[in-house]
TrEMBL record:
Protein name (Swiss-Prot/TrEMBL): APLP protein
Domain (VWFD) ranges: 1-166
Species in which this protein is naturally found: Caloenas nicobarica (Nicobar pigeon)
One Pfam short name: VWD
Gene that produces this protein: Aplp_1
PANTHER family the UniProt entry points to: AGAP008810-PA, VITELLOGENIN DOMAIN-CONTAINING PROTEIN
Origin: domain of life: Eukaryota
Amino acid sequence: IYDLASKCNVLLAKDFVHNTFTVILNEEANNSRSLYVEMNQTVISIYPRLKIAKMYNFSFMDENCQVLDQSLEKNSTNSRREANTIEVSNQEGVSVSCDFQFDLCTVTLAGWHHGISAGLFGTNDNEAGNEWTLPNRSLTDDMQEFTQSWQVNKCSLVQKKVKPCPITAKQNICKVFFEEPQSLLR
C-alpha cells in the first residue's frame, strides 16, 4: 500500500517492450484522482469519484470523444459498463476494472506481460527483490525516491496531451451543482 502525498501524476504500469498499454494515476484539480489508460491508440479516462469514463481514439484524424457507455467499433479495445463498474481490456491480455461503489480499480495482466512492464505496481516478474525498480533499472529501498521516480507529466516525463471533450450544457449544470466549492450539494 502506497500513500501518495504527491500532487503529481504517477505511472502505475506500462509495457516497455511492446507498448501495448499504459496506466497513469492523475491528480485532478478538484482534489480527486483519475486513471489514464492507454491501449491500442485509444485513451480511456476513468473518474471514479464522478463515476464516469471517457474514451478518446487516436487512430482517427479527429479524436472521437464519447462517454463510455458503448465501445468504439473497429477497435481492439473492449469496454463494458454496468451499474457501478467499468471494465476496459484489449486483445493482448490487459484489463483495467473500476468499481465505482467501492472506489476500487484493478489492473490485470496476462502471462505474456511477465517481466516486460514496470511502474509503481512493480515489475510483474514474480521476483519480490526487484519490485522497487526505478525507470533507469536501478533498485532502491527508499519509498520517496521510488514514488518520485515514476512521476510523469508536470514533474518529469511528458504524457500525451488529450483534448478534453466539449462540455455539454447538462454537464456544465451538473458541474455547478456538484463540483463547485460553494455548492451545498458538493
